[in-house]
Design brief:
Blueprint (H helix, E strand, L loop, with lengths): L51 H28 L9 H33 L50 H11 L8 H5 L2 H16 L32 E9 L2 E8 L5 H14 L4 E11 L2 E3 L3 H12 L1 H12 L6 E10 L2 E9 L6 H18 L4 E4 L12 H6 L2 E10 L1 H6 L5 H18 L5 E2 L3 H12 L6 H4 L2 E8 L4 E11 L11 H9 L12 H26 L3 H8 L6 H5 L1
Parallel strand pairs: 9-10
Antiparallel strand pairs: 1-2, 3-6, 3-8, 4-6, 4-7, 5-6, 8-11, 10-11
Helix pairs in contact: 1-2, 3-5, 6-16, 8-9, 12-16, 13-16
């Protein structure tokens, strides 16, 4: 028999004792979780005849055993055509045991889950949990109006120190909206539609975020941006904007025209290096470019009941006699969309269809997706057993390194070349033709092959591509495939001059739509004379932008390879890519 000794009550404080006026809330002993019952207090599990783990094991075993028994009994009744409602005494006992064990397990494990679910539901406006616990800002527990504990072990858990927050609210009405957002009454994403003022919605969301996280957004600008221009187009739930400096490399002499190339970057030395490459190309007579292909792709995946049926659709799509009909259906999606080809690949019962189409001056992902949807709807009548798994099956392939883009191309395929004169190599680039050719062979070609590179047979093409993409409002994530590049160098004119080229099969750019319509990005496109759609020749501006990207990559590759060849890489980065200034003091 378990006999428990009653704990003696603590002596009542005297009338003059300050502890008499304190609340009854007590802090746990050192090393004891405040949410766990103290060792001296009776537990709920003490009322059980067995230890808690044995009780749980008994009810688990009982639940699954009777469930298994009842399922077998009901299966036998079905086989012997006995009505299920006719039950025997053992079956009644089993049903009662099943219900009892279920109630116990639900009460033991389910209540905590439901309570945690309810506690999380109040924060669904931001989908984050408030990191505050019930401890006052002065270190006291909420119900403790006495002095803090003298012992360090009795101190409450220390929270991350909250930063001072500068409020940008202009009225009491805004204050009420902020409170509603932080309380979960108003979803943060609905502020624009509710208030009808994008700038005000951004300010309120920003203030609510600062209060909920306790972290300041002081260094993130709010003023000086047109938030109406990004609504429903570029960014959801904005709280400010990030400043990225824009430098100019050039003039780049390409195809007889001069371009000042805008590059948005925070990497020191990048613009200076590309600018030196532009100088070397200009001094050698300029570079030339050729557009090899222009077509955006989308590849849905569909499934059939057999590989034979998948092959039948493949043959149908690749039959030249059916292309005109399919193109007419596809082209209804836009006046600029023009279907060029369909290539298919089979994996078992699954068929991947890679549609390629021209998209005018737009990058074209949305355009080609709408055209593909039209074709899929059209095919459903002749192939009713076709199960459309997804509009994109990664055979496109978008925002991922893929051999299909490296081989077949995606977007604009461009090759750009220039012959750099011997004296320019020596005076401007501070190296020699022989050294550059040897370095390119061992680094860009052999080294990349040793690394198993896919489309990365270059020195730093993605550096230039990313900087121009950000400056001109392109999709930065498409830098992945747009930076596919192979750099070639060869001594010509009896070994005196250097022939250099970059071949880039999948440059994905546009001059309309997306971020190209923002003021800053539109200004950079205007600097290159490619802003908006070309009225004379649809698609001409986007194609020219692709050739400018390739020309800038040519300049960047030339300069970096020369710096490595001459041993100047570390020295130049230490000069232009290092700063001794205290950034925190500069920001303040």
């Amino acid at each position: 028999m378990d006999v428990r000794r009653r704990q003696p009550k603590p002596p009542r404080p005297a009338a003059g004792d300050p502890r008499r006026h304190q609340k009854s809330l007590r802090l746990p002993a050192p090393g004891v979780d405040r949410h766990e019952p103290s060792p001296s207090s009776p537990k709920a599990s003490d009322a059980l005849p067995l230890p808690l783990y044995l009780t749980n094991a008994v009810f688990f075993t009982l639940f699954f055993s009777v469930a298994y028994y009842l399922l077998h009994r009901w299966r036998d009744k079905i086989r012997s055509s006995v009505p299920l409602h006719v039950v025997t005494f053992p079956e009644i006992a089993a049903i009662v045991s099943l219900i009892a064990s279920f109630i116990y397990l639900l009460g033991f494990f389910g209540i905590g889950f439901v309570q945690s679910f309810i506690s999380r539901a109040s924060h669904d406006a931001w989908d984050v949990l408030d990191d505050e616990v019930a401890v006052g800002g002065d270190g006291f527990l909420p119900e403790d109006d006495g002095p803090p504990c003298a012992a360090i072990a009795c101190a409450p858990p220390k929270l991350a120190e909250r930063e001072p927050i500068d409020s940008a609210l202009s009225s009491a009405e805004d204050e009420e909206v902020v409170k509603s957002v932080t309380d979960g009454k108003i979803p943060s994403y609905s502020l624009e539609s509710m208030l009808g003022d994008c700038k005000r919605a951004t300010s309120i969301r920003r203030e609510a975020l600062q209060r909920m996280t306790g972290r300041s957004l002081k260094g993130l600008p709010l003023e000086g941006f047109d938030y109406e221009s990004i609504l429903g187009q570029c960014c959801e739930m904005p709280v400010g904007y990030v400043q990225i400096p824009v430098g100019i490399a050039g003039p780049l002499l390409l195809d007889g025209l001069e371009y000042s190339v805008p590059m948005a970057t925070t990497e020191g030395c990048l613009v200076a290096s590309t600018n030196r490459g532009c100088k070397a190309i200009y001094a050698s007579g300029g570079a030339t470019s050729v557009l090899l292909k222009d077509g955006m792709t989308r590849a849905p995946v569909v499934r059939f009941g057999s590989a034979k049926r998948a092959a039948e659709l493949k043959f149908f799509l690749e039959d030249p006699d059916n292309f005109e009909t399919l193109a007419m259906v596809f082209n209804r999606s836009s006046r600029f969309a023009r279907l060029q080809s369909i290539k298919c690949s089979i994996a078992g019962k699954n068929l991947y269809m890679r549609f390629t189409c021209g998209t005018g001056d737009a990058m074209g992902m949305n355009m080609v997706s709408k055209g593909v949807q039209n074709v899929l709807d059209f095919l459903q009548s002749d192939f009713p057993d076709m199960d459309i798994i997804g509009i994109s099956g990664n055979f496109c392939s978008d925002k991922k390194p893929a051999a299909v883009n490296w081989i077949e191309g995606r977007g604009k395929s461009v090759v750009c070349e220039a012959i750099i004169k011997e004296e320019v190599v020596k005076k401007v680039l501070k190296t020699s033709v022989h050294s550059l050719v040897e370095l390119n062979m061992l680094k860009n070609l052999t080294g990349s092959a040793v690394a198993g590179s896919l489309g990365g047979f270059n020195a730093h093409a993605s550096n230039i591509v990313s900087a121009i993409f950000i400056a001109t409002g392109q999709d930065p994530a498409q830098n992945v495939e747009s930076s596919h590049c192979i750099t070639m160098m060869e001594a010509v004119n009896e070994g005196k001059d250097l022939h250099m080229s970059v071949t880039m099969p999948s440059i994905e750019v546009g001059t309309v739509g997306g971020g190209t319509q923002l003021a800053s990005q539109s200004a950079c496109l205007n600097l290159l004379s490619v802003r908006g759609a070309s009225r004379e020749s649809p698609g001409a501006n986007a194609r020219r932008l692709a050739t400018i990207v390739a020309g800038a990559v040519l300049a960047g590759e030339l300069s970096l390879m020369s710096a490595i060849s001459a041993g100047q890489l570390v020295k130049s980065h230490m000069k232009y890519n290092r700063s001794s200034r205290d950034v925190t003091k500069v920001g303040s």
